[in-house]
Design a protein that fits this description.
Layout lengths: L6 H18 L3 E4 L2 H8 L11 E5 L6 E5 L3 H7 L7 E4 L11 H11 L5 E5 L8 H10 L3 E5 L3 H7 L3 H24 L12 H4 L18
């Protein structure tokens, strides 16, 4: 699958994030915000009731991406990292009264030796719940957990040339769409009126798809 940015772009973002982490005294950053996960890894998937996280650590070259097992294929296709940096937790962690997905995430941190030092989390993220934080802090007793605030969001403020190019293209499409609407709208017009040909010609570019070979959860 063709990715919207090359690997160099993603690694530049990760390095800028690491620079801010180092300045703040963070050893590891756990991103639960969907936009920040996408920004740092390329993973393109939403989850409103099952956790997913990007792990950025000063001692790791590339981030880790941990998602629900059934979303693992999407991570393989969209994330820029190789499979050694991707994890999927099985469904017996989902909405369970005996275990929490963050128990699995803690296991990955321990496996990687990241359950120590200062671990920063996005406490104000809609996707990071009180139960998530409780499971994390219980599992990483050797570490100090702190609030990352909007660390990644501030990195995202400065746009790359490729991001600016995409934004410019998007603005042109929106301008053309709105102009077509202005040219068409009239008193007593109804919603059922077919859109003009100029709108119908605006279609998103298709991306190449890639086959996914099922793989058991790690």
């Amino acid at each position: 699958m063709n990715k919207p940015f090359d690997i160099g772009e993603y690694r530049t973002r990760v390095q800028k994030t690491k620079d801010r982490m180092a300045d703040a005294g963070f050893d590891t950053l756990l991103c639960a915000d969907t936009a920040n996960i996408n920004y740092l890894t390329g993973y393109d998937g939403w989850s409103f009731y099952t956790p997913q996280v990007a792990v950025v650590a000063l001692e790791l070259d590339d981030p880790l991406c941990i998602v629900r097992g059934i979303d693992y294929g999407g991570a393989r296709v969209t994330a820029f990292m190789d499979e050694s940096h991707l994890y999927g937790y099985p469904d017996d962690y989902v909405q369970s009264t005996e275990r929490h997905p963050w128990d699995f995430i803690v296991g990955v941190l321990k496996e990687r030796g990241l359950d120590r030092g200062r671990i920063a989390v996005e406490k104000d993220s809609y996707f990071y719940t009180a139960a998530s934080h409780e499971a994390l802090t219980k599992g990483v007793e050797r570490a100090e957990t702190v609030d990352a605030g909007h660390l990644v969001n501030w990195v995202r403020v400065i746009k790359s040339p490729q991001e600016i190019a995409y934004m410019s293209d998007a603005a042109k499409l929106v301008e053309k769409t709105m102009q077509a609407a202005y040219d068409t709208i009239a008193p007593a017009s109804v919603n059922a009126t077919p859109p003009p040909p100029s709108i119908m010609r605006i279609t998103p570019a298709r991306r190449n798809s890639a086959a996914i070979t099922p793989r058991s959860c790690r």
